[in-house]
Amino acid sequence: MTLDLETAARERGIKYFLVSYTDLFGTQRAKLVPAAAIKGTCKNGAGFAGFATWLDMSPADADLLAMPDPDGLIQLPWKPEVGWLPADLVMDGKPVEQGPRNILKRLIKDAARDGLQMKTGVECEFFLITPCGSEPADLADKQMKPCYDQSALMRRYDVITEICDAMLSLGWKPYQNDHEDANGQFEMNWDYDDALVTADRHAFFKYMTRSIAEKHGLRATFMPKPFMELTGSGCHAHVSVWRDGENIFADRSDEIGMSQAGYHFIGGLIHSADALAAITNPCVNSYKRINAPRTTSGATWAPNTVTYTGNNRTHMIRIPDGGRFEFRLADGAANPYLLQAGILAAGLDGMRNRRDPGKRLDINMYTDGHTVEGVKQLPLNMLDAMRALDRCDVLNDAFGAFVPSYLKLKQDEWNAYCRHLTQWERDNTLDC
Ligand code: ADP
Ligand code: MG
Ligand code: MG
Ligand code: MG
Ligand code: MG
C-alpha cells in the first residue's frame, strides 16, 4: 500500500516536503511544499516551467508536473522536519518520455516482463574541497599514496560519521567508509538493492553529502576529475540480476562463479559501451578521468578499454566474485537514474541477443594492454561518445525520445566548451 503522506507528516513531524526531480543533466530541482498542501500536490503534481531546466522543452510548453512518489520518501536526517520525495514527470496528462526516472521505471517494467529484477550497489567517490573549489580542504592531506590514510580519514570524522549515521538511521545498511586514492577523496559504502531504490538513494546521497559538507564549512564535489594529477571520482556500479528471488548471475560451476546469463549481460555492456559512455560519463571533464595518464598515486583506477576480467581493477568490467560484476566506467557526474537505465538497457539487450563478451583478459591493462590485439578503446572525448550514442540502435530503442533531446542539449554544451580558449592552446600555438 502506498504511504499516506499527510499521516506520515503528522506521525514523523514532517513540516515540509521537498518534491524533487532530476533533470537530464542530473541536477535536482524541487518545490518545497508545506505538509498541509501535500495531498493536493500528490493529486495534481507540483508545477514547473520545463524549459527552465535541462529537459529539452520550450518556453511555450504547458506546465511540467512533478508527481511525488510517496514510496520514495526520505526524511532529511540533518533536518527531520523536511521529507524528500522523488517525483515523476508528467506533461499534458502523459509521462515525459525523456524524464530520467520515467525511463528507468519503464525499463524496470520491461525486465519484469521477462521475470527479471536488477539489483545494484553504487560507490560514489567524492572530494571534500575548499568552498571556492580550488583545492582539497585538508592541507595536511599530502601523501603520494593517500588511499586508506587513517589520519586524513579521522580528521574528517565529524563529516563522515554524520553522513554514515544518517544512512544507518535510514536503514540503508552502510558498512564502511574510507579515504580514497586522491588527496581529499572519500568513499562511503552501503548495501545494494533494487535498481530504482539504489537510484533514489544515489540521488539523495549526493544531495545529503553536499548539504552535510556545507554544514561543516566544506564543499563536496563528485566532479569526475577535479585535479588533473590526482585520481578522479568514479561511480562504480555492482550488478546482479534476479528471478523469483534467486540471483541468476551466480553459477558455482563457472571458473569465477559467473553464469551464462551474466556473461551475456556483460556482452551487452561491451556491445554498447562507447554509446553508454555518453550517459555514464556525461561531461567534457569525464574524459579526463578515463584514458588518463598515470596519477601521482601510481594508477588512475579508471578504465581505458572495453574489456572485462576477473578480480582485477584495470578493466572496464571486473568480476570480483561469483554472482555479480562491477562496472567501473561510470563517474561521479553520472545521472543516478540514467546510469541504472543505461546498464539495464544494454544488459537486457545482451541477455536477449545472447551477446558474446569475448575473451576474459587477466592482464594488467595499464601496462600490458598493447600485448593484446583488437582491444577496443573507450571514447576519447564527449563528442566521440555522443556520436556513438547517436548511432547506437540498442540505446535508441530503449531510451526513445530521450536520445535526440539529450544529444541536442549535449551538442550545445560541447559547442560552448569549444568556444573556450585554453592556456594550453596559447602556450603551444602562439609560435606556430
Ligand atoms: P569495491 O571497492 O571492492 O569495488 P565496495 O565494497 O566499495 O567494493 O562496493 C561494493 C558494492 O557492491 C556495494 O554497494 C555492495 O552492496 C554491492 N554488492 C555486493 N554484492 C552485490 C550483488 N550480488 N549485486 C549487486 N551489488 C552487490
Ligand atoms: Mg510562478
Ligand atoms: Mg569501493
Ligand atoms: Mg573507490
Ligand atoms: Mg569499486
TrEMBL record:
Residues 12-94 form the GS beta-grasp domain. Catalyzes the ATP-dependent biosynthesis of glutamine from glutamate and ammonia. NCBIfam families: gln_synth_III. Pfam families: Gln-synt_C (PF00120). This is Type III glutamate--ammonia ligase. Its cofactor is Mg(2+). SUPFAM superfamilies: Glutamine synthetase, N-terminal domain, Glutamine synthetase/guanido kinase. The keyword Membrane does not apply. Keywords: ATP-binding, Ligase, Magnesium, Nitrogen fixation, Nucleotide-binding. It comes from Methylobacterium oxalidis. Residues 100-432 form the GS catalytic domain. The keyword Iron-sulfur does not apply.
